Amino acid sequence: TATGEWGVDPTEVTVKAQLSLRLTVSDAASKAFSTRAEGDAAYLHRFIVDAYLDRQLASRHIIYKEPTDDEEFTANLSMQLHARDYQLVVWADYVKVDNDDDLYYDTSTLVPAINTKAYWGNAEYKDVFYASQPLPLGSYRDQWDVEIPVSIEMERPVARYELIADDVKKFLKNIASGDITGNKFTLTVRYTNLFSTGWNALDGIAKNALRYISYNQTIPVPTAETENLRVGLDYVFVPDGNADIPIAVEVADAKGKVIALTYLLLECKANQNQIIHSNFLTADPSGGVGFDPDYDDNMAER
Fold first, then answer.
1. Integer Cα distance of 74 and 16 in angstroms
2. What's the helix, strand, coil split of the chain in %, to 5?
3. How much is the pTM?
4. What DSSP string describes 221-286?
5. Cα–Cα distance for residue pair 58/82, rounded to 1 Å
6. Cβ-contact 262, 246 below 8 angstroms
7. Could you tell me the CA-to-CA distances from 190 to 53, 121, 144, 216, 259 in Å, in that order?
């Protein structure tokens, strides 16, 4: 006003958004997802809601919710926007309870959000959801105290996979015989072609394709009772809803000598989990796949 007091903006609309997502992807994934409950206390769901006006970010709101064991998850958000026509973009991932900074994804922008500089694999809480939908508010101009309910159903732009080594017994025999030595080994999963490390949540497309992306973990010698061992896990962005992603699974001893190498082509589909069994620990180090004549099981489960 002329005296410097704030008035009421008649073009401001209150948007009541209900965000919903489905956590499980399949029966196989449900079992894996349920194991996360042990660490749930360390993580929070983070919801980022961006309103774009003419493809420019006009408003951002962030809320945090505690994880739940329910298959369906909802969160509610209230925000004020001017009476114009927007594109509403929502991103949901996980952050640490004691630190709400970006963890697995750099979300300084959602066009695209990208994996952080240190690529994370073997991270169960790397799961992510998004949504993008129009929010036309222009018709509410000059109306007072308008509240608009908006329901947003989110979806996964990622596929999830697990790599299971079924050759633990043979691996232990090779150690006992002296064919391989050491008490710790490094297993590295390499993406051998261009690999999408980002997702444009405004347009719903994979972005930021890079080469030489990999992740690894240290594997101590398994106990004699171990039947099989999970050696790899990742969430990967899936262009066009499905993608064939080539990987190499490499096992090296403490001196860096490669003792096993397996090449695979992952057939990934968004919102699906893939469990792949193979002889990852004893495969031919020249790049072949070890063959166990006594092995009789499915190579992949979905």
1. 13
2. 10, 50, 35
3. 0.84
4. PPPTT---EEEEEEEEE-GGGEEEEEEEEEEE-TT--EEEEEEEEEEEETT-EEEEEE-TTTS-TT
5. 10
6. no
7. 39, 11, 57, 9, 16
Identify whether 285 is preceded by a cis peptide bond (ω within 30 of 0): no
Q: How far apart are the first and last CA of the chain?
A: 63
Q: What is residue 31's predicted lDDT score, i.e. its pLDDT?
A: 36
What is the number of H-type helices and E-type strands within the chain? 2, 19
What type of residue sits at position 75?
A: A
Residue pointed to by tokens 């690894």: 216
Q: Which tokens go with 5? A: 């007091």
CA dihedral 235, 96, 231, 266 (to 10 degrees): 0
Quickly tell me which residue has 């596929």 as its tokens: 159
Q: Are 211 and 194 in contact (CB under 8 A)?
A: yes
Mean pLDDT computed over 157-169: 95
Residue bearing tokens 């961006």: 50
CA atoms within 13 A on the CB side of 174: 19
CA-based angle 201:190:172, to the nearest 5? 130
Mean pLDDT of 72-86: 87
More confident residue, 297 or 204: 204
Q: Tell me the C-alpha distance between 273 and 235, whole Å.
A: 9
108: closest CA among 167, 57, 182, 70?
57
271 in Cβ contact with 21 (< 8 Å): no
Region 202-228: what's the mean pLDDT?
A: 95
239 closest CA partner among 191, 267, 205? 205
